[in-house]
Design brief:
The structure holds two protein chains of two kinds.
Chain A (H helix, E strand, L loop, with lengths): L3 E4 L2 E4 L5 E7 L4 E9 L5 E8 L5 E2 L8 E7 L2 E6 L8 E9 L10 E2 L3 E5 L1
Parallel strand pairs in A: 2-11
Antiparallel strand pairs in A: 1-3, 3-8, 4-5, 4-9, 5-6, 7-8, 9-10, 9-11
Chain B lengths: L3 E4 L2 E5 L4 E7 L4 E9 L6 E7 L4 E4 L2 E6 L4 E6 L8 E9 L6 E3 L3 E6 L1
Parallel strand pairs in B: 2-11
Antiparallel strand pairs in B: 1-3, 3-8, 4-5, 4-9, 6-7, 7-8, 9-10, 9-11
The chains are: A mainly beta, B mainly beta.
Amino acid sequence: GAVVSQHPSRVICKSGTSVKIECRSLDFQATTMFWYRQFPKKSLMLMATSNEGSKATYEQGVEKDKFLINHASLTLSTLTVTSAHPEDSSFYICSARGLAGASSYNEQFFGPGTRLTVL
Amino acid sequence: KNQVEQSPQSLIILEGKNCTLQCNYTVSPFSNLRWYKQDTGRGPVSLTIMTFSENTKSNGRYTATLDADTKQSSLHITASQLSDSASYICVVTSRTNAGKSTFGDGTTLTVKP
């Protein structure tokens, strides 16, 4: 099956710093990637939809200036948490959807997640 | 408003037993329904995906059913193993609304020896 990687898997940073999380589709091209945030014992909460070559679409209540998303290629999307605060500590997960017309289009393949801890 | 409701919220069973998880949805128009398994601290892994015309789909010991008329789905796990302990998430995708997916809150399954 299609593989999506995330890097780093864990990151600890100081309050006020910025953290970049990478999401890569390893064996397929993804026009669309999704970024989720997950709190303990809760389901995934969609933060934004990232389309290659265009601006991301953010969900209501998600600050676009705080969570910067870049999707510069068909295999890479990045999420940058700017000026991180302790309340940004969470589990961040990305997923990727294959190209329209491909068998992977109706699927979302998830990355393994990134645990962010802001001190 | 599109919603996906899963039940039970949590479930504890003994190793070797079977169990069934439920998913009811109001997403319309319907595109597909997917079941994922998420281990603690990991990303979700796809188990099954079903479109409107599919009633059942199996993946090893996992069998998903779909009734598009009543908008219900179930995930049946046969002969449970300790490694089945995880959260099981039902995700329904709309055919419009930019293909947006609605996630259920998941069912936490614990398999005990």
